[in-house]
Amino acid sequence: MIRFRYIYMVVGLALTLAACQNKKGETANAAGSSKAQAVVTIQSQNDFFTTTNKLQSAVAAQNLVLLKEYNIQAMMKMVGLNIEPFTTYQIFHPRYGKSIINNDPEAFVSTPLDIAVRQNSGKVTIFYRKPSDVYRIFNLPSSLTSELDNEFAKIAKAAASK
Prior knowledge:
Blueprint: H1 2-20, H2 35-38, E1 39-43, H3 48-61, E2 65-71, H4 72-78, E3 86-92, H5 94-103, E4 113-120, E5 123-129, H6 131-134, H7 142-160
């Protein structure tokens, strides 16, 4: 059972990687938002490892919790795909969970939130889906989703800067 879940996760990540390589402008969700509107992409001024270290520090500086780190490069190697360094982080904090529980507990299906760092042709990018877009279909206060948008913007900016 555990092996099946692991294989399912690796296949899902392979599909996600393929989706990341689609052309800009394709629809990102049923609401019709384009990927360019829903996904924030920032080019880092640092190498991959400096960017990931700065990102982890920025998460802590924003008083968020780094829940999980996925080494996408290693997972893809397991299915025969050699890619440059690529890591995804799941981030959240219980203080936001309180507002979610009080307003729309079903929003936990989209929690925690993800942010990724990828090296491609020597260039390092940070990308994430705006929390306001992730939670758009739920009945959450805009003050919460705007605050999360700001938190993620600060994290990405800190990780990308020299």
